[in-house]
Amino acid sequence: MQALPRPCPSVIRGAPMGHASCTNNLNQRRPAFRPTSTASNEATTTTTSSSSSGDIKMVGPEPQRFVVAEGQLQNIAGAAFITILRAGAGALASGYKTSFVRETAENKNKYTLANLPGGFRIEETSRAAKYPRPAEPLIICDAQNADSRKIREAVCILDIDTIFKPCAEGGLAKGLNPSASIPCMIDPNNGIEINDADEIVAYVFRNYGNNKIPLVLRKGPINDITAKLGMAPRKNKGTLYTGNGKIPAQPLEYWAYEASPFCTVVREVLSELEIPHLMKPVARGSTKRQELFDRRGHFQAPYLEDPNTGVAMFESTAIIEYLRKTYGSSTSS
Predict the structure, then answer these.
(1) Residue 8: its pLDDT value, please?
(2) d(Cα 229, Cα 288) in Å, to the nearest integer?
(3) Could you tell me where the DSSP H helices lie in the chain?
(4) Interval 104-134: pLDDT, tens
(5) In what order do the strands lie in the sheet with 138-142?
(6) Which residues make beta-bridge pairs with 277?
(7) 8, 113, 177, 306: which has the fewest C-beta neighbours closer than 10 Å?
(8) Distance in angstroms (rounded) separating the CA atoms of residues 28 and 196
(9) The model's pTM
C-alpha cells in the first residue's frame, strides 16, 4: 500500500480500546446519572444486568417508539432531512428483506417489526451476517461532516462494529496533529490505514461486504452533493468542541444507525464532546436488533451504555442530557 500523504491523528493509533497516548484518562468513576424526565408518564427503570462492559444499571425514562420530546420537533425534522436526501442510506442492512411468519412458542418473545392480526408477525433479515466479519472492530477517526457520514452509512449497511474517535474543531484530538486528514480508518485485522472517505467505503464493501457499493455511496457528484446539501440544515452541529478536557477511560457502547434522526442528534453530541464509542449498528435487518432485545427485553435506537459510570439508557433526549452533564464543559448546552 502506498504511503499516505498525511498521517492519521495520534488519537486513532495504539490499542483500539485505549486512549492514554492522546488524552488524559478519567481516573475516577463518576456517579450514576439519572436524566430528567421529559414527560410525566415516563417511568424510570432500575434493573441491573451483566453485559460485555460489566454490571450496567438502566436509568432514565422508559423508551417510547417514535415519540418526539417536547420542544424537539424542529431539531429532529432537521436531522431527518439528510436521510431523505440520501435516499435512506444506512437505514437497511445489505440484502434486507421482510417475511410474514406465523407466531410460535419459539418466536413470540423475539424481536419483530410488527405483530399482525391472526397470529402473524413481520420478521426482518439481511445478508450482512453472512459476509466476512472483522475479528476486531475497525477504528475510524471522523468528524461530523459529509465525508464521515458516508463512512457511517457504509458500516451500518454492512453491519460492522466500529470504534469511532470523533475529532471536533478546537478539540483535543485535532490539536494533537493539526495537519491530520479526517476521516481516517485503521483496520487492525489487516494492518491497513486509509484516509480518504471514498476509498474507505470501497475498502469495507470489498473486504466485509459483497463488493457492490450502493449508488448513493459510489464515488461521484451525486454522492458528494447529496451528502453536503443534507448536512446544511444542521448548521455545523457537532463540529465545535464543547468537552471538559477529558476522554473516558473506556469507549461508550452506542447502538444506533445513521439514517435515524434520533440517532443523528445523539451522534452530534458524541462528536462535539469527542467521546470515543463502539458503534453497534442496528440498521433494519441487523442481527444486533435481536441482541439488544435479548439484553434489555426491548429494542429501540438509540441506546447507550457507559462502562465508565455503569449506566445505560434509551431515549435521545435523556442520552444527550447525560452526555453533556457527564462529559461536557460547564458552558455546553
Answers:
(1) 60
(2) 31
(3) 73-85, 146-158, 172-176, 197-208, 221-231, 261-272, 288-296, 316-327
(4) 999 999 999 999 999 999 999 999 999 999 9
(5) 48-51, 54-58, 311-314, 303-306, 252-256, 277-281, 162-166, 138-142, 184-187, 192-194
(6) 164, 252
(7) 113
(8) 37
(9) 0.85
